[in-house]
Amino acid sequence: MYIIAETVLGLDSELNEARGRAIVEDGIGFLDSTLARSSTPYRWFDWTNWLYRKIYGVKDFETSLREKLQETIDYKIKEHIRDRKDGKPERYLAFLDYMIDVYLREEKSCEKLDLRAIVNETSNIVGGGYETVNLAFFWLLHRLACNPKIQEKVYEELVDFDEKNPNLTISHINELKYLDLCIKETLRMHPSVPKLIRELGEDIQAGNHILPKGTQTSIGIYEIHHDERVYPDPYKFDPSRFEPENLIKIPSHAYLPFGDGPRRCIGERAGLFEMKIIVISLMKKFRIIPVDQENVQINLDEWGLRPKHPLMFKFVSRA
């Protein structure tokens, strides 16, 4: 979440440390409270949820998060305007800066963003970018722990990588081909978002049926990723599925961990780099061993593909 606060909001200076910390705390609180509400039927209605918060003194994290994001956006807008007046070069270090730049432009050819849209997009990324990467990372650790030979192959690639590249850069991370295969296979078996809800923008022919425009549809990503016609032995962890010679056998829409089309995950590249950096840091120092790999069960819902019980690991030093 701190990575998101820096890369999305640009809150990386000492001046903004308290602001960033408050947003991080409200962001995590909002996610936790949303998950708790989704599993509590009597809180599904807005008025019953409001009553629940009043009775038990539960903080309204969503409102608090939006207020803090609005304050941050107002602050950043003033910062942009001040820099322009002072003739300072424009520096766009975060996603929020790019949106504010579009908001402040006066060209008629540019579609105008309003502040509400900026708050909505920012809150979506703060919320969605935390939990999805978190889930994918722990499933990757689980799969590497349960497959020691594959784990050692990843480690050998990292050792060879370190010898050739003492300074870590994005281009160097992209050279870790086997780690990339392992991440892709993890996202196939455990897509962080197991299904997508979409409204059809036009009539669609589906077999002998016509699905009319406006129909709410559910795309079962988990089911697609476990179709044995595309992925033989689909419950086996096999990174070689994504080797170039095998990748060409996979239909274009049979692998959708980040969705597709106009609503494809905007944080895809950032999330993948985040996972790789954390895994690299751990794998170089520790051998990962599962505590109980036989009884891992999943909860399959629209909020994410979660284990029913916490995933447990042992970390053995490689020193």
Report the span from N to C terminus.
30 Å
Helix/sheet category: mainly alpha
What average pLDDT do the residues reach? 83
Q: Biggest sheet: strands, sense, closure?
A: 2 strands, antiparallel
The H-and-E topology, N to C, reads as HHHHHHHHHEEEEHHHEEEE
Q: In order across it, which strands form the biggest sheet?
A: 1-4
Low-confidence stretches: none
Number of helices: 12
How would you describe the shape? globular
Which percent range fits the helix content? 40-55%
Short description:
It is built from 12 helices and 8 strands. The protein is mainly alpha-helical and 319 residues long. The strands form 4 sheets. Strands 1-4 form a two-stranded antiparallel sheet. A two-stranded antiparallel sheet has the order 2-3. The chain has a two-stranded antiparallel sheet with strand order 5-8.
